[in-house]
Design brief:
About 0% of the residues lie in helices and about 55% in strands. With about 110 residues, it is mainly β. Strands 1, 2, 3, 4, 5, 6 and 7 form a 7-stranded antiparallel beta sheet that branches. A hairpin with a 2-residue loop joins strand 4 and strand 5. The chain is globular, with a radius of gyration of 13 Å.
């Protein structure tokens, strides 16, 4: 897997690699191939990614703020430093309870 869109051999803070933008969800892909995707997101308060399914389990790590993750019909409020796995082929959505940033890793193939 090749990492892109961030400098190599440089210490960094992931939450600083994606910026908030008024009224938007911003994403920055760090790696993507047939096996895995690694993406950073910044959500403004009240913005969301509507219900969808992924081809593999998705590990979400909240880097900043507060987000709401809904998996099927159950909702979870996560704060900075907390994580959740959204299972493959199960509908899930993500909502900015407050401004928040997250990293998502989806494993698509084994």
């Amino acid at each position: 897997m090749s990492i892109k869109n961030i400098e190599k051999e440089k210490m960094l803070t992931l939450k600083d690699e994606v910026s908030y933008q008024e009224g938007q969800v911003v994403s920055k892909t760090l790696a993507q191939n047939k096996a895995v995707t690694l993406t950073l997101f910044a959500f403004e308060k009240g913005e969301e990614i509507s219900a969808h399914e992924s081809g593999g389990d998705a590990l979400a790590i909240v880097l900043d703020g507060v987000g709401k993750f809904t998996i099927e019909e159950k909702s979870y409020i996560l704060n900075t430093g907390e994580s959740i796995v959204m299972p493959a082929k199960i509908p899930h959505s993500v909502y900015g309870e407050e401004r928040f940033k997250m990293q998502i890793r989806v494993r698509l193939r084994r």
